[in-house]
């Protein structure tokens, strides 16, 4: 929209605002600076077999409408599609790895929806349309010794 407006000769710019990612960080107490963060649209992750680092946070948007062309009220993710997502994630994470189904509250006086489950249970869980899937990082990060020596050279 901004590029279209500019192309027509209008001045246009994007202003910052509250984002789904910002709400998730605040509601779950996540600091993306701790180990990094990657985010993908869930269908895009599967369709293009995106690569990700399981030792940093993984955020999957629109997990509740996985593979859907449009959204309808009361819609939930199809179990067979969640099974495909589960198999894809199982390449990097163990079956008991925790994942969080997250929905930001649209109102400041209401609580967000936060539900922790195990990855193996994702395919049999009712996942509402507006759900974001938060996958915590695996703990096995090993720093490069040559880089860590920089801290001691100072």
Blueprint (SSEs and pairs):
Layout: H1 2-7, H2 20-28, E1 37-41, H3 42-47, E2 57-61, H4 79-90, E3 98-103, E4 113-118, E5 132-135, H5 145-153
Parallel strand pairs: 1-2
Antiparallel strand pairs: 2-5, 3-4, 3-5
Description:
The protein has 154 residues and is α+β, with helices and mostly antiparallel strands. It has helices at residues 2-7, 20-28, 42-47, 79-90, 145-153, and strands at 37-41, 57-61, 98-103, 113-118, 132-135. α3 (42-47) links the parallel β1 and β2 (57-61). The model has no long low-confidence stretch (mean pLDDT 91).
Q: Summary?
A:
The protein is of the alpha+beta class.
Strand order of the largest sheet: 1-2-5-3-4
Terminus-to-terminus distance: 48 Å
Instruction: Write down the overall mean pLDDT.
Output: 91
Radius of gyration: 19 Å
What's the main sheet like?
A: 5 strands, mixed
Helix content: 25-40%
Low-confidence stretches: none
Helical stretch tally: 5
Structural class comes to: alpha+beta
Q: Could you tell me the number of beta strands?
A: 5
Write down the overall geometry: globular
SSE succession: HHEHEHEEEH
The percentage of residues in β strands lies in: 15-25%
């Amino acid at each position: 929209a901004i590029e279209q407006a500019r192309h027509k000769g209008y001045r246009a710019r994007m202003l910052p605002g509250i984002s789904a990612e910002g709400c998730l960080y605040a509601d779950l107490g996540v600091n993306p600076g701790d180990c990094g963060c990657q985010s993908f649209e869930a269908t895009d992750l599967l369709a293009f077999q995106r690569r990700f680092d399981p030792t940093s946070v993984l955020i999957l948007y629109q997990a509740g409408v996985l593979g859907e062309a449009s959204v309808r009220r009361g819609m939930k993710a199809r179990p067979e599609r969640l099974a495909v997502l589960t198999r894809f994630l199982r390449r990097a994470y163990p079956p008991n790895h925790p994942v969080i189904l997250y929905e930001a509250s649209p109102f400041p006086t209401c609580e967000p929806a936060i539900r922790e489950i195990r990855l193996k249970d994702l395919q049999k869980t009712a996942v509402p349309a507006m759900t974001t899937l938060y996958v915590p990082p695996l703990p096995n990060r090993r720093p490069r010794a040559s880089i860590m020596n920089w801290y001691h050279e100072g």
